[in-house]
Amino acid sequence: MIEKKDVQIIKGNLNKKEHVEHFLRLTSAFMSDKMGGNIAWTNEERDKVVVDMKNHPCAILLFAIVKGEFAGICTCFFAYSTFLAKPLLNIHDIYIEESLRGNGLGKKLIKAVEDVAAINKCGKITLEVRKDNLNARDLYKSQGFTEAPSSKLFWVKKI
């Protein structure tokens, strides 16, 4: 059991070597997970994502640290809601190491995202979740997320 005092949520800084290492490790773990699509970066992509994330003006990175060990990550991006006439914050990736799931780390990361959104006067937080990721869906529901009204389809066109 993880105690509250053992968990710290910090804002990531990809100018710090330690944060780069854990960003790559945790995001790679998510990508290679079934829910991440069982994919991996090429070496070129791995190097490029760090540079791109460092320079992205709308990126926010949060880490969950348990007893000094990086155990979870949440990558978010600011966008703008024309309908609300306010910024929004999108949770792009959220991942907790498998051995530490079920200990409230996802809830703590989402709470930190809510704090960032409130400070930045966002009108909403958005995310996409796989239909078959029932654990994540349960987490999001427990934190007040609801399925978008008139449920939308998420489409992709690779360029």
Could you provide a short overview of the structure?
This protein is of the alpha+beta class and 159 residues long.
Approximate strand percentage = 25-35%
Strand order of the largest sheet: 1-2-3-4-5
Low-confidence stretches: none
Question: How far is it from the N-terminal to the C-terminal residue, by CA?
Answer: 45 Å
Structure, described:
By secondary structure, this protein is an alpha+beta fold. The protein has a single domain (4-142), classed as 3-Layer(aba) Sandwich (Aminopeptidase). Helix content is 33%, strand content 26%. It contains 4 helices and 5 strands. The chain has helices at residues 17-32, 43-55, 105-119, 134-142, and strands at residues 7-11, 59-66, 69-81, 86-96, 124-127. The protein has a 5-stranded mixed sheet with strand order 1-2-3-4-5, sandwiched between helices. Helix 3 links the parallel strand 4 and strand 5 (124-127). The longest helix has 16 residues, at 17-32. The termini are far apart. The model has no long low-confidence stretch (mean pLDDT 94).
